[in-house]
Amino acid sequence: MQAQGGLPQPGEIVFLQELCRSDTDKKSVRVIGRLTNHDFRACSAVITDVTQTYTVKVDTTLIEPFNYMRDSLVQLIGEMERLDRSGDRILRARVVSIVDGMDMNLYQRVVQAQRQYFNKRQTILHI
Amino acid sequence: MAEAENRMQGAEKETLTTANAMYPQIYWGLDPTSQTFCKLYIRDVLTMTEYSSATPVQGVFSYMNHPVSKVDLMGVIVRVEQRSKQFLYAIDDSTGVINCCCWNPDPLTVKQCIIPGLKEKVEETEKIQQCKEEGFNLGDLLHVRGKIKIFREQREIMASYFAIEKDPNAELNRMLEVQALHQLFYDKPFQLSNIIKNCNSHNLSLIHLTASLQDGLMKLFEESRTVQFCMADLETSEDVKSLIDQNAPEQSVALNKRTLLDQVVNQLEESGFLLKHQKKREHYRVIMNDVQLIKIVLNLLQKECAREKYAEKGCHYLHILGEIRKAEEYCSLNSNAILKCLQKLEEESRIISTTDKHFASVE
User: What Gene Ontology biological process does one annotation of this record name (chain A) (predicted)?
Assistant: First the structure.
């Protein structure tokens, strides 16, 4: 992934369930989920998968205050970090946007297709 | 969606090899990517190398071996920097992050609308302009088109068009579109068609040959002070034969000398060095050495300048051409030829040019 001097790292698109399972830290990710349990005083929130099985805690210090509607679909770009005390993994979000109306089926298929294409490309173009 | 997927799978079979030739600058225009805003991934925009050519051209990069200078990108704004006359947005499309330099639009001057239907459109445009001046926020989807510039060793996009996309599905459609474009077009190397490759070497050498023959012939005429010649003489002349052999030693056997000489003589006539003889076929007069013609031109100019109409400014060279063409001998004289005559007279200081197209007599 390329990043020029001074600019933030690009947020690689991941699915919420992958974020829950994987262990990698300090990588910039972009994830979409439904915003539930937003506490703006504590600057924390929880985003849920569309199938309502996976959840990830979000630290919203950098993005407060933002236009929050209960259960709206949000896209967050940020870094995964591990909290020392509880050992939980938390997403420190730096960019948020409301993406209500995005076709989640299409999103799944497009991201899968793009990943397949990039894998093929790497082997052929040696990028 | 299914159609697009099938098409992409089919195209994958045709993709790339690693050996891609870099073509010289003269051929870049044949590749559409050199003129269009290419929809590339930001990662590629940042890692592309400059197109290698004999004379390095600034601002042209190569993707595979396509020359690219302008790009069309869409990404989420992750950083906003406001300056006095521009905004610097860093956009992220999940493969990379790049800065886009977006200039503040000039304020709209059309405030009063005569046509009522147009008023709504103008108000809408004003609103959009206002948003652009206030700046966009983090998280907005920005669609930008512009040239790649290198500023302080970092690549930036100098935006000629930028706008916010409000529909979140726009990004998904965009991802599909970019992938399809890559598989169908960008990932295939830029190849010159075989016709051009074959045609190129042959034609270029022919052009060089005729050019050098033209120069050689004119020198010959000057030295020998020929006023008139015919094509048959030219073909059989020893000097001309040696000239052709000098310039194209390998090809002199295969080349048809007559057609070559015809071509050269035609070009010389068009440029105004030779004049076709009216009565004798295949005879030509060399204008530079034709003392008679030059005298006629001079007399004509003196006569016309004596008239009040042309006394001050002189005659336009086309007017002289018209007068001379009235004589039967010189009815096929062309404008280049008359200019050359007039220029020769000027060199001898017998006439002067009052403007670049008007001439006046001195005596």
Answer: negative regulation of telomere maintenance via telomerase
Distance from CA of A105 to the nearest CA of B (A): 11
How, if at all, do strands B66-68 and B70-82 pair? Answer: unpaired
- Write the pLDDT tens digit of every residue in A72-97: 899 999 998 877 667 678 899 999 99
Query: Same domain for B172 and B281?
Result: no
Q: Which domains are seen in chain A, by residue range?
A: 12-125 (2.40.50.140)
How far apart are alpha carbons A43 and B253 in whole angstroms?
89
Q: Confidence band (pLDDT; 50, 70, 90) for B93? A: very high
One domain, residues B233 and B337: no
Task: Examine the domain organization and report whether B22 and B158 are in the same domain.
Answer: yes
Q: Which residues pair with B144 in a beta bridge?
A: B73, B162
CA-nearest residue to B5 within chain A is A113
Q: Are residues B208 and B263 in the same domain?
A: yes
Which residue, B333, B221, B24, B171, is CA-closest to A110? B171
Residue B87 to residue B190: CA distance in whole angstroms: 36
**Nearest by CB to A124, which of B15, B90, B176?**
B15
Mutation site for A-interface testing, chosen from B14, B15, B17, B138 by largest number of A Cβ within 10 Å: B138
CB of A96 closer than 8 Å to CB of A67:
no
Nearest-CB residue to B16 (from A95, A103, A124): A124
* Digit-coded pLDDT (tens) for B234-279: 777 887 777 777 766 555 445 677 787 888 888 888 888 888 877 7
Cα separation, B79 vs A13, in Å, equals 18
| B297 and B270 in a common domain | no
B187 vs A102: CB contact, 8 Å cut-off? Answer: no
Residue B179 Cα distances to B39, B187, B217, B246, B309, angstroms: 9, 10, 59, 57, 72
Same domain, B314 and B296: yes
Provide the domain limits for residue B16. Answer: 10-103+136-186
